[in-house]
Every structure is written in C-alpha cells, then in structure tokens.
Design a protein that fits this description.
10 helices, alpha+beta, 3-stranded antiparallel beta sheet
Length: 254
C-alpha cells in the first residue's frame, strides 16, 4: 500500500474487518494473502502477499479498533502457548464471555462447558501436576450434570434455562467439536483439549476471578490461573517457572 496515501476508513478497511469477523483469529502470515487481495481490489493493481508489511497490518488493526470500540469489540493479540506465534483475535472487551457463548449454545451446553473448565483448572491442575488441559475421554465423561449442578438447578442458582440433566455423550462430543471450530478450544494431536489464544484473551478476567481465590492468605494461596511475571499473560504451559515460553528465552539476554 502506498505510504503517502491519506489514512481514512474506506471499503478496504471494511473488507479487512469483515474478514476478521468471519474468521475471528489471524496470524501475520495468515493475514498477508487476505490483505494482498484487498489491496489488489481496492487499488486496481496486483499486490502480492510478500508486499504486505507488518506496518500495513497494524495500520488496519488500528483503524478497525477505532471503528468497533463503540460496540465493545477489540482486536487484541497474544503469543500462542506452544508455537510462540503472535495471534490476533477479535474479542468482546466488556461483556461476560460466558454470556456471549450462551447466545449460540443451550443452557445445558454452557453448564457442560463450565464443568470442562473446572476440570481443566481445578480437578486436573494440581501443584504436583500442573496441567491446564483435558483429554477427550475426560471431557466426554463430564457429560452428565454432577449432583451439585442438579441441586443448584432445583434451588434456581444454576445456569438459567438448564435442565440439570446434562448432555448425552454424543452431544458432549458435538459440543467439544463446536468449541474447536468456533476458536475457543484447541485439540492437540494427542487428544488434549486446551483453551485457544482467543479464549485466553477473552476469558482472562473470568478465569482469574473464578479460579484464583483472593480470600486465601498470600502464603497459602494457590494460583490455579498463573500469569507470566514478564508479560502478565496467562500461562497454560508450565515450564519450570512462572514465565511464558515466549519470555523465558529473553531472560538469558539479561
């Protein structure tokens, strides 16, 4: 894109935002062919993916954020826990993300999601074995509502609209597949489900509020949701210290 072009919000910016809305997440390498196609159509001359710079990308992100901020939306970025690739995602900046999911899923599915998250961050995440992930078998086995869930439903304190009966195993498998397709979960080659970079950005406040008990004494407090000392991002891959895989190599520089 021409450096001397006057910055303004035009159809190319709208096309870029539409691409983000339809996909939810991008890396810089993934977005280059998208922006190249947008530039080609907008400027009526061919632009190759390798011609797209990070400055172009960040310029379009900035313009998009200005346009969507009144709607409590924002394009944020974080590093992938394993690949260390920076991932950009369109997230809701204010509303409860669990409520947001309730617009596309049933109350029983939301209750199931909460049970899966409880398993990720409480049941299988212990001081001796810090694992913020869950196997396919472990996840599917949570399909039935637990006794506490059914009791809360009877008392009216469970997820609104939930029957308290849970899901069938087939429905649980379908829900897990949907969460991966929607960009909330990732599934590893070994069959482990974990939160995606987008989910970590959007659920950060909810996760720390739900699983980190502020009432415990500082000396005895166990943080289920850990933040990197350097970048303050959530760590779900523990590597012998409370520092993300992205920041740990940088420590050697100092």
């Amino acid at each position: 894109m021409s450096d001397d072009e006057e910055p303004r919000y035009n159809n190319s910016n709208r096309a870029f935002l539409q691409a983000f809305i339809s996909r939810s997440t991008f890396t810089y390498e993934e977005v280059k062919p998208v922006l190249a196609a947008i530039f080609t159509a907008h400027e009526r001359r061919e632009t190759l993916p390798e011609d797209v710079t990070e400055a172009d990308f960040h310029s379009y992100i900035s313009a998009a954020n200005d346009a969507i901020s009144p709607f409590d939306l924002e394009i944020r970025s974080t590093y992938h826990q394993i690949s260390r690739t920076r991932v950009y995602a369109l997230v809701n900046s204010t509303s409860d993300p669990i409520v947001q999911l309730a617009t596309t899923h049933t109350a029983d599915e939301i209750s199931y999601l909460k049970r899966v998250l409880d398993a990720m961050f409480e049941t299988y995440n212990t001081p001796r074995h810090e694992v913020m992930a869950i196997t396919s078998m472990q996840a599917v086995q949570l399909h039935k509502a637990q006794t506490e869930d059914r009791r809360e439903t009877q008392n009216g304190s469970a997820t609104q609209g939930s029957s308290g009966q849970g899901l069938t195993m087939m429905q649980a498998e379908k829900m897990l597949k949907s969460l991966v397709e929607e960009g909330w979960f990732e599934k590893s080659k070994k069959g482990f489900y974990s939160l995606s970079p987008r989910a970590l950005m959007e659920l950060r406040g909810w996760l720390t509020e739900t699983y980190n008990d502020d009432d415990d004494d500082d000396d005895e407090r166990v943080l289920k949701v850990k933040l990197c000392f350097a970048c303050k991002e959530i760590i779900t891959v523990v590597n012998g210290g409370q520092m993300s895989l992205k920041c740990k190599p940088l420590l050697k520089v100092y």
